[in-house]
Specification:
This protein is an alpha+beta fold.
Length: 634
């Protein structure tokens, strides 16, 4: 499969002449008596978790560029996609470290609601019309032209007009844009579709901007870190959206726009400093904000000034420091409400003239843990008894919200031969009763599926969201099946997926998925996927049953299945042909999960958080019906 790397674009503009305004009204700021503010600052906006996360990445880099260089260089060995980008563009980790070691710190950026609206507008336009740029390309423009047929002046004017329309009275501005239009496959190219497909996340986009691979002028890095005498921006808006060309099985495909600015008028050139920060519960114990950790609704009350703040849904806040008595050098913040409950936390912040300052509040997270958040299987769908049947078990004490989707036509773009053209999905309970069905995902629940960032790229793919009761007790699960067939008796290869949409705190989880289908050759082998999220390793059992199916009336069972488990880079983690001859034989028996037939493979594995695939094929190129199972063994 051809691998492509995306370019990023950067643009800046200003300063522009100040409009005429009444001097007294425009520049007079009253000095209040020292005391608690009474006005909530309402111009922060409500960024998503991804958008807040990118701002935190930017501010961490601005606070300590040399440390950022070391982090970026380390990605070369820990992230196959970053390594691929480094190698393709001739970037070395040593060069990144040496460059960033020379950069000075700059103050943090404050999220601004108007810039947030502007950046989202551009990100959504890129995602909807499938391009990368600051302005939609002209019809017939050269696809290699990063400006889409527009002049630099036209683009600067358009960005400024977009800022104006969003309500941001800019003096100077900058903008970075990134779009993930290509599939990145981090596995050896061996002719088989047996790797784990991924697309860049917002963290990858941030690395692309910071390293600036393929951009000799380093314009994105310059805008973020205020290098080479460029503007030291005070405010930012981060817009993240989905790409219209988002491939199958990759929920994290993103388009990212970063807008930076300094206002004019009384605050021209950034005369008003902000206290900026994020309140978060450090669930993954990494000491840094991560999507989903934000604490919403926390009141942040300074002891002086005009404004206080209430944290956004993603946990971020900003407080413009107006009305301070001259000579004020320390502000005391009191955090109350929201995730704090009845607690009150007090924190002092040292000011730095007219520069923004950072004041995060990290709350202790839950004990380190891990959980399975996605289970999937790619298989050949037939008719009658050869339809695809994916079974899964929900265990716990509370209902579980899951998204189930079936991708067929979307697989063609990734080189899958004979993809199922038009799949149909039914979810049934253990008694066989229909719970919910879907043909084309946009027919119903379209908005909820989009909000979950799991919208299939083709309308003929299936997807539904359903809340399923667990079993009768915390230790006995409830069984469900997802039945996949082709409309009009069509046949072909499909990918069926089960996603856990709930927060880790919800006391229920999917503990087992099993999929029955045909194991053929080439692209039509069976591939089970599993994603483990958290901070600790997770024990799982993976089995493939063939001969055992024959006594249950399954015709044409696979006589001798074999399993290979691979990580997200495509590297083999473990293999097995016959379970009794494998390393897990004793443990499988202890868990009562040893297959009936000695010809069937099974493995007990303790896997670090990440994505894995289990590829099931027939020994000696045999074919037939098999059942692949993944059990949560904890």
């Amino acid at each position: 499969m051809k691998i492509g790397m995306d370019r990023c674009n950067s643009m800046s503009g200003g300063p522009r002449l100040l409009r005429h305004f009444g001097m007294t009204a425009a520049i007079f700021v009253s000095v209040l008596a020292q005391g608690a503010p009474t006005t909530q600052y309402a111009d922060y906006g409500d960024p998503s978790g991804d958008e807040q996360y990118v701002l935190e990445l930017i501010n961490r880099a601005r606070a300590n560029p040399p440390a950022e260089g070391v982090r970026l260089a380390a990605l070369y060995t820990s992230d196959p996609l970053v390594k691929q980008a480094f190698d393709q563009y001739g970037v070395t980790p040593a060069k990144v470290i040496s460059d960033f070691a020379t950069y000075a710190p700059v103050p943090p950026l404050a999220m601004n609601g108007a810039l947030l609206a502007s950046s989202r507008s551009q990100a959504n336009d890129q995602g909807s019309f499938d391009y990368q740029g600051h302005l939609r390309p002209l019809t017939g423009s050269n696809s290699s032209d990063p400006f889409g047929g527009h002049s630099v002046g036209e683009i600067q004017t358009a960005i400024g007009a977009r800022f104006d329309a969003a309500g941001y009275d800019w003096n100077t501005f900058g903008e970075n844009v990134y779009a993930s239009h290509h599939l990145y496959a981090a596995y050896p190219s061996n002719g088989n579709l047996d790797g784990y497909f991924v697309l860049p996340t917002v963290a990858f986009a941030h690395a692309a901007f910071m390293v600036d691979w393929g951009v000799p002028a380093l314009s994105h890095r310059t805008a973020i870190l205020a290098l080479q005498g460029s503007s030291v921006y005070k405010e930012a808006g981060i817009g993240a959206a989905q790409s219209a060309s988002k491939p199958a099985g990759t929920p994290s495909a993103v388009v990212l726009t970063e807008d930076f600015g300094i206002t004019r008028g009384p605050d021209a050139n950034g005369s008003t400093p902000y206290i900026v920060g994020v309140v978060y519960t450090d669930n993954d114990a990494d000491g840094f904000y991560t999507q989903g950790e934000g604490a919403a609704g926390v009141t942040v009350m300074p002891d002086v000034g005009v404004y206080f703040a209430v944290t956004s849904s993603a946990g971020g806040f900003a407080i413009p420091l107006k009305g301070l008595t001259p000579g004020t050098n320390i502000v005391t913040l009191t955090f109350t409400g929201g995730a704090l409950g009845s607690r009150q936390i007090v924190q002092s912040v040292s000011l730095d003239g007219s520069n923004n300052v950072k004041a995060d509040l990290k709350l202790a997270g839950a004990p380190p843990s891990s959980r399975i958040v996605n289970l999937s299987t790619r298989l050949s769908i037939g008719t009658d008894s050869n339809v695809g049947i994916a079974g899964f078990v929900i265990k716990g004490t509370t209902p579980k919200r899951v998204l189930i989707r079936v991708l067929g036509p979307s697989l063609t773009a990734f080189g899958v031969q004979g993809a199922l053209v038009d799949p149909y999905l039914e979810v049934r309970d253990s008694a066989g009763a229909l719970v919910q069905a879907n043909d084309n995902w946009q027919d119903s629940q379209k908005d909820a599926i989009n909000a979950a960032n799991l919208a299939p790229p083709n309308n003929l793919d299936c997807a539904l969201i359903v809340t399923l009761p667990p079993g009768p007790s915390a230790t006995v699960g409830a069984s469900y099946t997802a039945v996949v067939r082709g409309n009009a008796s069509q046949q072909g290869v499909a990918l069926v997926e089960v996603y856990d949409l709930d927060d880790a705190a919800i006391n229920s989880h999917a503990v087992n998925v099993s999929t029955r289908g045909r194991v053929l050759l080439g692209d039509s082998v069976m591939i089970a996927g599993i994603v483990i999220k958290g901070t600790l390793p997770r024990k799982v059992v993976i089995r493939a049953l063939g001969p055992t199916l024959t006594p249950f009336g399954v015709v044409g069972a696979l006589p001798d299945p074999t399993i290979r488990v691979a990580n997200s880079s495509g590297a083999t983690v473990a293999t097995n042909d016959d379970w009794r001859n494998g390393p897990s034989a004793a443990e499988l028996q202890a868990l009562n999960l040893a297959p009936v037939s000695e010809k069937e493979p099974a493995l007990v594995l303790t896997l670090d958080p990440g994505a894995y695939t289990a590829i099931v094929s027939g020994t000696g190129n045999t074919t037939g019906v098999a059942l692949v199972e993944v059990y949560d063994a904890e």
